[in-house]
Specification:
The protein contains eleven helices and 19 strands. The chain has helices spanning 14-30, 57-65, 105-114, 162-165, 187-193, 238-246, 251-259, 288-291, 301-317, 322-336, 340-355; strands at 5-10, 35-40, 52-55, 76-86, 91-104, 121-122, 127-133, 136-142, 147-149, 152-155, 173-174, 177-185, 196-201, 207-214, 218-226, 266-268, 271-272, 280-281, 284-286. Flavin-adenine dinucleotide binds next to helix 1, strand 3, helix 8 and helix 9.
Length: 369
């Protein structure tokens, strides 16, 4: 295998950037074998960024291992309590949260990008196909007609991964529970929420809202609904949908909705996917959502993506030959694959509880912690 080890990371989201950073840092720290790390991202530098998510203990640890200090750098808002209430605000129960940070996606992306050398990310490169020779990928082809070869290819291209199709045949089903998500700057409400994640549940089941404070006086809010009972709205009909179905929910949600530019709200279609049979084929491996799209109920998409990136970086830093490269990818897959059935089934369990009327199951903590 030629030196340096040329690593092509296909997708510049959270998992791809975490992996790139892990490789860069490991190389600098250990003075190990020279690596060439390039992230190929389909969007331009100002890529669409999304809203936010919960960073849990595993993701926090992975970020720290990459040299980022989310608490110290103010990347997130610590949360120490999940408050479950009825839709009218009447409390049901509380659950203590430990090591949970609410993080917005654009801040996290910027922090990861900023920690990498400027030329490590090539924007405006949309992967179109992979060129194989037997069981080994030779090169990636991009929609701008460019071809780039490498020694190892990592599919970090998200939930609709092109790379995944080269490894496993998976049939993603649209998940039954859909989500409208938005972000609003509302310092008063953010201050009132304090360190709380507030979740409001319609007792009939199948409808809930969540409010999460973010740094700088912003609030992430979402409305989850059973797509079999409530017809998902077109983007222009989101305000009407919210008025009709959650107009009776408690005041914090009404304040958040009233202050939001609903043109920016996003209707999310999550996918329900079985655990993958394989994460690796030859010199191609999958990380993050490309490897294992999870239901948002689990709150684990971000965390597993960060852990995947950090772990795969460690494995790749240890290899010094083609044989050890295959071994490194397999050992990564062997570590990650056994975790996935649990998260898939936890997500499905929470989804089943969600669509049922509120009873003791409805009091279960709706997170796969
Ligand atoms: C725009 C966007 C907004 C999001 N917002 C939220 C949110 O608000 N809350 C939440 O919980 N999750 C959100 N997610 C999903 C969340 O980021 C992931 O579940 C999680 O972080 C796993 O990260 P990932 O790197 O595996 O996938 P992603 O973060 O989805 O990253 C995949 C990357 O691959 C790139 N890509 C895809 N196809 C190609 C291709 N053919 N060629 C080159 N590059 C490609 C994408 O542009 C993207 O940058 C969002 C994802 C995206 C892409």
């Amino acid at each position: 295998m030629p030196t340096p080890l040329r690593t092509a990371i296909l997708g510049g989201g959270i998992s791809g950037l975490a992996l790139a950073l892990g490789l860069q840092r490991g190389q600098l720290a250990c003075g190990q074998r020279e690596l060439e790390v390039v992230v190929w991202e389909r969007h331009g530098r100002n890529q669409p960024c999304g809203f936010g998510f919960l960073l849990l203990a595993g993701g926090l640890q992975a970020l720290q291992s990459l040299g980022l200090d989310p608490r110290g750098q103010g990347l997130g808002q610590p949360l120490d309590r999940l408050r479950l209430c009825l839709d009218n605000g009447q409390p049901i129960r509380e659950h203590r949260l430990e090591q949970v940070l609410a993080v917005d996606r654009s801040t996290l992306l910027r922090a990861l990008q900023g920690a990498l050398p400027a030329d490590a990310i090539r924007f405006d490169h949309e992967l179109q196909d992979l060129e194989w020779q037997g069981e080994w990928v030779q090169a990636a082809h991009f929609s701008n007609q460019q071809r780039h070869s490498a020694d190892v290819f990592i599919g970090a291209d998200g939930v609709n991964s092109h790379c995944r199709r080269h490894i496993v045949a998976m049939a993603p089903r649209p998940a039954r529970v859909r989500e409208i998500v938005a972000l609003v700057e509302l310092p008063d409400l953010a201050a009132e929420l304090g360190l709380d994640f507030l979740k409001l549940l319609d007792p009939r089941g199948g409808l809930a809202a969540g409010l999460i404070p973010l740094p700088k006086g912003r609030v992430l809010w979402f409305v989850q609904f059973d797509g079999e009972r409530f017809a998902p709205p077109q983007p222009a009909a989101i305000p009407d949908f919210l008025r009709r179905h959650v107009g009776h929910f408690a005041l914090p949600l009404q304040r958040a909705i009233a202050a939001t530019d609903l043109g920016q709200a996003h209707l999310w279609q999550p996918w329900d996917v079985d655990p993958p049979a394989r994460l690796v084929r030859g010199n191609l491996a999958l990380v993050g959502d490309a490897a294992h799209p999870l239901l948002p109920f689990t709150s684990q998409g971000l965390n597993l993506a960060l852990e995947d990136g950090a772990l795969l970086a460690e494995a790749l830093l240890r290899c010094d030959s083609a044989a050890s490269l295959a071994f490194a990818l397999q050992s990564y897959a062997q570590q990650r694959q056994p975790l996935l059935p649990r998260y898939v089934s936890l997500g499905r369990q929470i989804a089943r509880d969600f669509v049922a009327p509120l009873n003791s199951a409805g009091h279960r903590v709706p997170l796969a912690l």
